[in-house]
């Protein structure tokens, strides 16, 4: 397919589907989001097709299409490892191409975040960027010299499905949809923060409400965020010990919690390997420069 002057990106998330059209300079020409038809595969395809149709009408021209989605693809082109489990085992690329009648490039949503932020975001110019999604699920992508690292199994950056490191005796490993227990995702996702708050007697609040109430002085909510920051610090310290990235970028709904950028770097030196040396951690922790739009921008840059 001849390269088009415009690129459309789709961020297929657990709670929302966002689409945006970028020009060659990265300027947004059109943008829209809808709620994800959770658990309904065919309706999810219909929602993506409707967004693409709306984009075509809005910009009045052709564009390439890139889609960021949870999970990865098997050699047979079937989705695996998606926390939006209705996608698993489905030929997502083939089905989208049939509906849209044009080629579609797919990539893991965290890889799209990494590509976006390494291209013109918080990690621009950095050698190694580790980009984390803290949202309905937890994932990560790795960009090295501006290129996404995938690996032979398509698993590079699948940090959310490793166990929470240095777990404390009171951290009973929760069950994960992947079949394991105690995955980082079960501790650090938005629903996991809400569940942790409830387990400690804080009542039924979602992650956004917990952050809002903590900022207003609610001590139970502040304690829940402190536990979350401590777990995130441990989980990211293990990444620094293995990958030693220049910058760790946070995306997803919980990336908007300002407290994390103060507390996590203040805590993670306890677990970053230094063998007792007084050597500060030089890895930066930063919010995604493009915020909620970073995933959709990375999907657009797949072309």
Which key features would you list for this structure?
303 residues; five-stranded mixed β-sheet; 35% helix
End-to-end distance, in Å? 11 Å
What's the pLDDT, averaged over the residues? Answer: 94
Instruction: Count the DSSP helices.
Output: 9
Q: Strand order across the biggest sheet?
A: 3-2-1-4-7
Describe the largest sheet.
5 strands, mixed
Order of helices and strands: EEEHEEEHEHEEEHHHHEHEH
- What percent of the residues sit in helical stretches (DSSP H or I)? 25-40%
What does this 3D model show about the protein?
This protein has 303 residues and is of the alpha/beta class. The model has no long low-confidence stretch (mean pLDDT 94). Helix 7 (219-243) crosses helix 8. Strands 3-2-1-4-7 form a five-stranded mixed beta sheet. Strands 10-9-8-11-12 form a five-stranded mixed beta sheet, with helices on both faces. A two-stranded antiparallel sheet has the order 5-6. A hairpin with a 5-residue loop joins strand 2 (16-22) and strand 3 (28-35). It has nine helices and twelve strands.
């Amino acid at each position: 397919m001849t390269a088009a002057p415009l690129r459309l990106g789709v961020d297929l998330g657990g709670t929302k589907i966002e689409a945006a059209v970028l020009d060659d300079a990265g300027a947004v020409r059109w943008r829209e989001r809808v709620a994800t038809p959770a658990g309904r595969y065919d309706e999810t395809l219909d929602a993506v097709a409707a967004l693409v149709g709306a984009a075509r009408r809005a910009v009045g021209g052709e564009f390439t299409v890139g889609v960021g989605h949870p999970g990865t693809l098997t050699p047979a082109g079937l989705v695996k490892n998606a926390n939006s489990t209705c996608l698993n085992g489905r030929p997502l690329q083939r089905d989208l191409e049939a509906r849209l009648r044009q080629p579609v490039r797919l990539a893991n949503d965290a890889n799209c975040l990494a590509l976006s932020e390494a291209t013109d975001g918080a990690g621009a110019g950095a050698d190694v960027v580790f980009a984390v999604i803290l949202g309905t699920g937890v994932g990560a992508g790795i960009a090295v010299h501006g290129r996404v690292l995938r690996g032979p199994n398509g698993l590079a950056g699948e940090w959310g499905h490793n166990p929470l490191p240095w777990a404390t005796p009171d951290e009973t490993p929760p069950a994960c949809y992947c079949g394991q227990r105690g995955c980082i995702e079960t501790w650090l996702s938005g629903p996991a923060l809400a569940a942790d708050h409830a387990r400690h007697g804080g009542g039924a609040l979602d992650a956004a409400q917990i952050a809002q109430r903590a900022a207003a002085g609610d001590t139970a909510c502040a304690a829940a965020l402190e536990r979350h920051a401590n777990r995130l610090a441990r989980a990211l310290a293990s990444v620094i010990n293995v990958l030693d990235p220049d910058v760790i970028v946070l995306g997803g709904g919980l990336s908007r919690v300002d407290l994390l950028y103060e507390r996590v770097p203040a805590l993670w030196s306890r677990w970053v390997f230094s063998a007792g040396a007084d050597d500060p951690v030089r890895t930066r922790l930063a919010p995604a420069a493009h915020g909620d739009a970073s995933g959709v921008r990375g999907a657009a840059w797949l072309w």
